[in-house]
Specification:
The protein is of the alpha+beta class. It has eight helices and twelve strands. The strands form five sheets. Strands 1-2-3 form a three-stranded antiparallel sheet. A three-stranded antiparallel sheet has the order 4-5-6. A hairpin with a 2-residue loop joins strand 7 and strand 8. The longest helix has 18 residues. The chain is globular, with a radius of gyration of 20 Å.
Length: 303
């Protein structure tokens, strides 16, 4: 099979996770595959990613457009009926009832980063739907306008990851460099509940662990942890945010993503831990490993 045809086949088969394996009631993306304990747990951020994949699938002829429209309708109905926390959604939801599923003992409310991933996918869908399904696009706009981004800032210079009606704000502020950039972009651009500029300028950019500047494998890394961290740092926010030409205050986000990716590849080729398969296969990121889930990266023990 030629390379292009093989790539098309892989992409088409991968899309089945968001179509055939989607939750039968809500149409949302399930959290995991391979363990029946997860069959009714759906993920909000993963659903945002799935919405973008569905649009690509429809445009490329992998799935019928009518089927995608029907699935988006089911997803929207589920989100509209589900409990929200200051307009935001939790990390996990019950796929049939919409009830919040706690991610951890104190994380039983809204997750602003997962909500940002969901909104990124929904806004992409809104633009795609507007010419031929304006009613669906309008329902997405209502969900987008309802998110109280500022309600996740206990102080103007801190955007917090979580807020719970039972526990209040979590202790995890969005600091350092990680996958959360899109939350600041969407929160700053909200037409209804925007955050103050200090949350980004002071709480994010000036936080410990944001800037780096060291080199690994002779590659300079502008931002983030040693050796770059999990590769999803260069994936999640940039599914909807084009980093090319995105330069701000001396930060070139495309250069950052390219440097992290090159370091990740070089680490796997060098394979200092002598792990089977490294080199030919590379791209350390979050997934299920031999001992369960892990955010694997070049600096992770055993990675």
């Amino acid at each position: 099979m030629r390379t292009a045809a093989l790539l098309d086949r892989i992409q088409s088969e991968t899309l089945r996770y968001f179509t055939e394996f989607a939750h039968p009631v809500s149409g949302m993306a399930r959290e995991r595959y391979g363990d029946d304990r997860w069959l009714d747990t759906v993920t909000t951020g993963g659903t945002g990613f799935g919405l973008m994949a569905l649009i690509v699938g429809a445009e490329r002829g992998f799935v019928p457009r009518d089927a995608v429209l029907a699935q988006i309708d089911r997803i929207l109905a589920h989100l509209e009926a589900a409990p929200r926390h200051r307009g935001a959604f939790p990390h996990w939801m019950h796929g049939a009832t919409g009830a919040t599923i706690a991610f951890s003992p104190h994380d039983d409310g809204g997750d602003i980063v997962e909500t940002a991933f969901l909104m990124m996918g929904l806004l992409t869908a809104r633009q795609w739907l507007a010419p031929f399904a304006p009613a669906l696009a309008a329902r997405i706009q209502a969900l987008w306008w309802a998110v109280d981004w500022a309600g996740f800032c206990p102080t103007p210079d801190r955007l917090h990851w979580h807020w719970s009606p039972n526990h209040g704000f979590g202790r995890l502020a969005l600091m350092g460099w990680h996958e959360g950039l899109i939350a600041f972009v969407l929160a700053a651009g909200s037409p209804t509940h925007p955050i103050a500029p200090e949350a980004y300028q002071q709480g994010w950019k000036q936080s410990p662990g944001f800037r780096n500047g060291q080199s690994w494998h002779r590659i300079r890394l502008p931002l983030g942890p040693a050796l770059g961290g999990p590769l999803f740092f260069s994936h999640y926010s940039f599914l909807g945010l084009d980093p090319r030409g995105l330069v701000e205050d001396g930060i070139d986000y495309f250069a950052q993503n390219r440097a992290q990716t090159r370091i990740n590849h070089a680490h796997c080729v060098e394979n200092p831990g002598k792990f089977k398969g490294y080199g030919t296969f590379w791209g350390l990121t979050a997934c299920d490993g031999p001992d369960g889930y892990g955010a694997f990266s070049p600096r992770t023990t055993g990675a």
